[in-house]
Structure formats: structure tokens, C-alpha cells
Amino acid sequence: MNKFDFNKQLSQKAQLVNEILQSLLKEQSDVYDELYDALKYVLEGKGKRIRGALVLWSCEVVSGNMNRDAEIAAAAIEMIHAYSLVHDDLPSMDNDDIRRGRATCHKAFDEATAILAGDGLLTLAFEFLAKEIEDSDISIKLISQMAEAAGPSGMIAGQMADLKAEKMYGDIKLLEYIHTNKTAKIFQCAAIMGAVTGKADTNQLGTLSEYGLKIGLGFQISDDILDISASSEQLGKTAGKDAKADKMTYPSLMGLEKSKELARQKADEAIAVLEPFGDKAKILRDLATALLERTR
């Protein structure tokens, strides 16, 4: 598959996820008006929906097609990601003014509204998994997986370690801990959720779990690289902010070229992991390559 065809498929999945998010949000008729506006503003941001697409593609690889459970899971993980960005941009965190090519939530509204909007997205993600998934066993598995990946031993742990690592000398082991928890575990969660909704067996679940973790770490390494090599216009967020905040990144510890080599290694490892799926996993192989080659 060439780059154009892959981007077209990703765009189609992103559009589907956006439609599901809009539909689910419209059902929230009791939300306070200004809070609803903030939730809508965040979810309408032009995200690539890579995590949601990963859920859908993982389900397809296992079962041959998407299903409603996978669609709900894809929307839920994008809500988790959106909440994390809203809070990440707050003045007390990374203090950023731009996200997805426009004003961050606390700039478009105010800081208190942004905090509550992030809280709202986080809570709604779990509510939808509880209410919209008919099979209670699948619902419980999805909720448990997402709570673990996004919670204090996952994404929040990584974010905390990232904040504490600013302006201090670190090592690769600490940096890998930060990136694994802050970013890679959510990718791993997306792959697992797709596998669960596709009713994967134990081996398939393990394979997709390992794949998700590897592309997630590769994604974050590439993100570190883009922060110093791309413009704010390309990224849709402020470029160079990691260096300005004196954050620990792969380029700051290893240099640019070695960071690129490590990102390539992670993509190659992720592709190799998919061997048991054969040709059925071609789209996931293409995803690993696309994340390595992205420019934003």
C-alpha cells in the first residue's frame, strides 16, 4: 500500500470516529451549556485519530470486520487522549497556547472550564464503555484495560515522571519509563481493546498488545524528533517547547540520528511481531511505517 492509500484509509477511519464522537456527545442533553461547548470544541479539534483507528484495525485483523463495540471503544480512547491533551496544555503543566492548529481549551474558554472539560471527557469515556457495550464481559474487560493504561500506574505516572524530569539530568531507562507510560501504554490499550472487541484468543491478544506497545514508543520517539525538526504550523502545536522547558527527550540524550535509528528499530520490531497474522495485518504494518515517517 502506498502512502496515499494508507492516508486515505486513516482519513476514513478518522471520519468514522469523529461521527461516533459527535453522535455520542449529542446524547448528553443534561450537560451545562458552557461545559458542553467546551467538550464539543475539544472533540471537534482536527486530530488524526490514530488511537481510534488502531482499535478498529485491530478488531478487523482479528475478526475480519469492525463492529459496534469496536466503534464505541475507538471513541472512548479518543476521549481519553483528548482529555490528556487538555490537561497537558494547562498553565500548571506544559502551558501551551496551541493544540491541533487552534487555541487550546483553556485559551478558548478559561482554565477552570478546561479542567472540568478534561474531567468530563475522562468520565464520559468510561460511561460509554459501561452503557453502550451490550456484552457485560466485554464491557468490563475494556473498562479495566483503559483504566489501567490511563491511570496512576500508566499515563498519569508517565506524565508525573515527565514533569519531575524537567531541568534534571536523566538516563535512557528513566526516559523509556516516561514514554512507555505517558504514550505507549495508550497505544497498547487501543490494540488490546480492538482485540477484545474482535474476540481474540490469548495468542492474538498478546501479539497485538506487544505490537501496540512498540508502535507507541516509536510514536513518542518520533514526536520528540518532530519537536525539534518541524514547525508549529506543521505540528498544529508549539514546536520546540521540549527544549525550551529543558525536557528529557531522546534527541537530548542520544542525539538526532541515533533517535531516528531507534524509532526505525521500534517500527521494525512492531512489524515483525505481526508475523502470526500474515497478510491480514498489512494495514497495521503500514501504520508502523507511517508513524515513523509522519511530519506532524
Write structural notes for this entry.
The protein is an all-alpha fold and 296 residues long. It has helices at residues 3-26, 33-43, 50-63, 68-88, 105-108, 111-132, 136-150, 155-164, 172-197, 202-229, 232-235, 241-244, 250-254, 256-273, 282-293; strands spanning 98-99, 102-103. It has a single domain, classed as Farnesyl Diphosphate Synthase. A two-stranded antiparallel sheet has the order 1-2. The longest helix is centred in the C-terminal third of the chain and has 28 residues, at 202-229. It is globular and about 50 Å long. The model has no long low-confidence stretch (mean pLDDT 91).
Topology summary:
Elements (H helix, E strand, L loop, with lengths): L2 H24 L6 H11 L6 H14 L4 H21 L9 E2 L2 E2 L1 H4 L2 H22 L3 H15 L4 H10 L7 H26 L4 H28 L2 H4 L5 H4 L5 H5 L1 H18 L8 H12 L3
Antiparallel strand pairs: 1-2
- The beta-strand count equals 2
User: How would the global form be characterised?
Assistant: globular
The sequence of SSEs as H and E is HHHHEEHHHHHHHHHHH
Strand content: under 5%
Q: What CATH first level would be assigned?
A: Mainly Alpha
